[in-house]
Amino acid sequence: MTDEPGPPERARYLTAVRGGGRLCPEDLAPTVAALVARGLLTSPATGYTAANPRALGDRIGAELRTRAVRLLLHAERLPGTLRPLAHAYEALHGPSEPDGPGHAVRGVDGHDATGIRGRISELHAACKVEFLAAQPGHCPADRLQKTLTHDLALLARGCSTRILHQPATLDDPAALRQIALRTQQGAQARVLAEPYERVLVFDRAAAVIPAAEDRSRAAIVTDPTTVAYLVAHLERDWARATPADRHLNAPHPTTVRIGRLLARGLTQRAVATRLGLSERTVAGHVSRLRDRYGAQTLFHLGWHLHGERHG
User: Fold this and answer.
1) CA 219 to chain CA centroid, nearest Å
2) What mean pLDDT is reported for the chain?
3) What's the start-to-end Cα distance of the chain, in Å?
4) What pLDDT score was predicted for residue 258?
5) d(C-alpha 50, C-alpha 18), whole Å
6) pLDDT at residue 288 above 90?
7) Is 0.70 surpassed by the pTM of this model?
8) Which runs of E-coded beta strand occur in 15-129?
């Protein structure tokens, strides 16, 4: 089975959605069986019910990212595995040309936990324009503290700095203080409650990714196509994330009340009437909410507020 549903499966899923999210229990078409296997349809006794495709997309995305890391790790190990064979061959035929089949894979440089810290420090020192980071899971304050000097030096040099966290990091008050130190100096931080892989990107020229499931090793990738691929995924996750400011500073109580009313579907005018405020005052609070959630439009803001209210 391929990673994505094919055209017949997508058509059958859309038929289910247009029919109120259900299919008849006697429908045993192959496409229905495939949709059930993917988790896009559930199969209770009363019939087939459409499920939200986002869960499938998140799962497949996480699997693909894990697969990509494993392939990069395999690419790193392969030259070492073949080296004894290459030595035996070259003892008879002479060494291969640098660009020949026996040459190590370009653009992937592997390190253990000790070596990677030194290489990351070098990359921080050489970074001139932009630093991007995705930090999944809980990030202890002591780990943030160790990189604080590097990050502040980047910001002092005028480097754009964006860091993506998961909500688990923000449950730690000490980690929150570390994040606040960075944002006060100009760094941007966002929060995404979805699975994603750890990655550091320096000037869009080099990326650091895990090279082992236990993160005891890391790979530094410099191949432009691979780095661009990693940046594209990070940018996609960044666009869906919300600014960390909402976790760092509590909003004004009136702003909270206005947000709750907007989440219930009231218009700005209706909110102003309900709270006895001018529309201009409400608009000011809405502007702060949009900044807090990184929402470009009122519709986008309403989507965030509704999701938070029912999350």
Assistant:
1) 18
2) 77
3) 33
4) 86
5) 10
6) no
7) no
8) 22-23, 41-42, 48-50, 108-112
What the block records as the tokens of 189 is 């931080």
The amino acid occupying position 170 is: L
Q: Topology of domain 107-246, per CATH?
A: Endonuclease; Chain A (3.30.870)
Mean pLDDT, to the nearest integer, of 202-223? 85
Q: What secondary structure letter does DSSP report for 218?
A: E
**Which pLDDT score, from 0 to 100, does residue 102 have?**
34
For strands 130-135 and 199-202, give the pairing: antiparallel
What are the structure tokens assigned to 174, written together? 């000490």
Say which CATH topology domain 250-310 has: Arc Repressor Mutant, subunit A (1.10.10)
The pLDDT of residue 215 is above 90: no
Q: Which residue type occupies 124?
A: H
* Phi, psi dihedrals of residue 206, rounded to the nearest 5°: -145, 140
Picking from 50, 70, 66, 71, the residue whose alpha carbon sits closest to that of residue 5 is: 50
Of the listed ranges 64-73, 164-173, 296-305, the one predicted with least confidence: 296-305
Per-residue pLDDT tens digits for 108-154? 555 555 677 888 888 988 999 999 999 887 776 677 777 888 888 89
pLDDT in tens, 62-88: 777 777 777 766 776 777 677 777 766
| Dist. CA 34–CA 21, nearest whole Å | 17
Residue 238 is predicted with a pLDDT of 92
C-alpha angle 310-234-218 in degrees, rounded to nearest 5: 120
Q: What is the DSSP string of 228-289?
A: HHHHHHHHHHHHHSEETHHHHSPPPHHHHHHHHHHHTT--HHHHHHHHT--HHHHHHHHHHH
Domain ranges of the chain: 7-51, 107-246, 250-310
Between CA 274 and CA 257 the distance in angstroms is: 11
Which amino acid appears at position 310 of this protein?
H
Question: What letter would DSSP give residue 203?
Answer: T
Burial (CB count within 10 angstroms: exposed 0-12, middle 13-18, buried 19+), residue 202: buried
